[in-house]
């Protein structure tokens, strides 16, 4: 169905990450590719002097390690792309660079900040040059057996 899928995964729920990766694997064409993407939000420059210089590098390496382990555990071959930036614009940029034809991401329960600042999902949908699939199922609505502790733990 899709040749190149950007699968946007945060470092939140492992259950959500599993579900998104499995969905991406079911939608990718034979010979296609999945690019698992995680964006580490920008840190305001006024706070950079308070953080160790290796903070960004450590955060990138840690996210890459966790995402690679998850892909390996699920048996889903994927390229891992971790960047620092503003999540919505970085996802749209990665999709453009990779000539993606689908961005797959999960929504969350809206709160007041989404109405004031708009959500990442809304911004991606508005600016993406490709199709966007939004997984709206909250983790607690998954059917089947009760999730294991490692499924509900953060990545």
From TrEMBL:
Residues 1-134 form the UspA domain. Belongs to the universal stress protein A family. This is Universal stress protein. It comes from Rhizobium chutanense.
């Amino acid at each position: 169905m899709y040749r190149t899928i950007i699968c946007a995964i945060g470092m939140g729920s492992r259950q959500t990450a599993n579900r998104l990766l499995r969905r991406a694997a079911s939608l990718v064409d034979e010979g296609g590719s999945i690019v698992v993407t995680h964006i580490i939000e920008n840190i305001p420059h006024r706070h950079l002097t308070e953080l160790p210089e290796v903070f960004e590098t450590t955060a990138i390496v840690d996210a890459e390690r966790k995402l690679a382990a998850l892909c390996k555990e699920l048996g889903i071959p994927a390229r891992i792309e971790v960047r620092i930036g503003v999540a919505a614009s970085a996802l749209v940029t990665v999709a453009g660079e990779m000539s993606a034809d689908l961005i797959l991401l999960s929504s969350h329960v809206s709160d007041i900040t989404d109405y004031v600042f708009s959500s990442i999902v809304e911004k991606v949908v508005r600016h993406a040059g490709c199709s966007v699939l939004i997984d709206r199922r909250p983790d607690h609505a998954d059917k089947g057996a009760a999730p294991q502790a490692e499924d509900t733990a953060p990545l």
